[in-house]
Hints:
The chain is an all-alpha fold and about 475 residues long. The chain contains 20 helices and no strands. α4 (about 55-80) runs antiparallel to α18. The relative contact order is 0.13.
Amino acid sequence: MVTDSKKLSNIQVYLNQPWNLIKTGFLILTWIMMGCHLELIGPSMPILAVNLQVTYTGMGSVLASRSAGYLTANCLGAILQSIVKNHSEGLLFCAFILPAIATSATPFVTSFILMCAISFAQGLSKGFTDLGGNNLVLNMWGVYAAAPLNAVHLGYGLGALLANLLIRPFITHTKSSSTSEWKINRDIIIPYSITAIMCFFIAVGHLLLYILEFRKRRQKLEVKPDDESVAKTNSKKSSPYSPRTCGRGFFQYGLTLSTIFILYTFFLGGNYQTFSKFFFSFLKFDKFNLSNEAASWGMIIFWVSGSIGRLSFAIISIFLSVNICLNIIWFGALCLAIVWLLYVWIIGLTSTSLFILGAITGLIFAPIFPLSFAYFNQRLNVVPMLLGLLLSGTALGAMISNKIAGIVMDHNPNHFPTLLAIYILMTIILYIASYVVYFFHQRSVLNNKKIRSPKNTIEDDEEGQEMVLKDKNNDN
């Protein structure tokens, strides 16, 4: 009976906030378009490589420049966190004006440097979207953010699927993957132009929401100016840049766990971003002898399974704690890494096993990112500065991994799944380390409560009870 009431109350939390549900719904559309404009490069990479006269190593550099833009945006978000906190909708407007321009120009570019600049702009767009969107979700839903985060990030997989379906008719008409048949295929102008127009409409939508939020904020200031001034004076007591703020009053705990989580996002971002960008090219590896159409279907299956994974855990996370969800997923990821290594180096990959493994990889990988940020939000106080640093870790991991993957694809594509397995193992180790740090922190807090004398601990006991209640709510 207790568990049933908890489930009902969790669902009621969402139903009682209709405006937040509407905003979350529009953020899902936002992520759909982000997935669409960022993942167009996957199936069109061979065309773009020939237009630029570069190898996969060169395309790895193009993707690395995108990650550099993503890193730059997140570093700016960490430094200028007041903009992220107070102007998230305005940030999302800027985030979709950039790809509207960059995506429309991509099919016409033949200069490697210009393509890197366009890719950098797309990285800025992704960074601004992640900063603004994730900040909105975390602030709207708090400890109940796991399901909304999974729902919003589900949009990315749907957008990537849309990108593959949109571009598929324009790349599958060729019978071979030889460079002569890929060269100067201007047909991709159509899907790139459609995507650019849709990005523009999303930008307009966020501009309208920003105007509405600005008006509401101004009305609140006019009605309650005294409350706002009290809030400002209270906020000055602790610096938003201090690990003590992130650790909810504990400096060492906040610093240690923040560092672990940033390293965690480094390997997490590098793994997911690299696999999704290079899987199509891996499918086109000569020894598999797959046509463009078959490789395109492989990508579609990957993104469909990823969308199913995020949708499933968006529902499951309402009824199970974030910790249990992540434990299940990381166990599955470890088994997946072992199976990939067995097939690549011992059993041998076939087209059927490639499609199945790709589907399982999408199913497992897709929910990890949103669930991880919900986990971060429970263990720490994820202020905009910390959010920017966590996303910067993702960007740096993607930037380095994309470059490494490009080199691997040119020399020995068999090592591509090995790269995947190494990153999975490193992320699991860091996830376990975060559990250990949290366990010792909780034990230290409880021991300190017992040691203090009853006469001097009335206020401290109240604070300790509040923190224990917070942690219990987070685990639920």
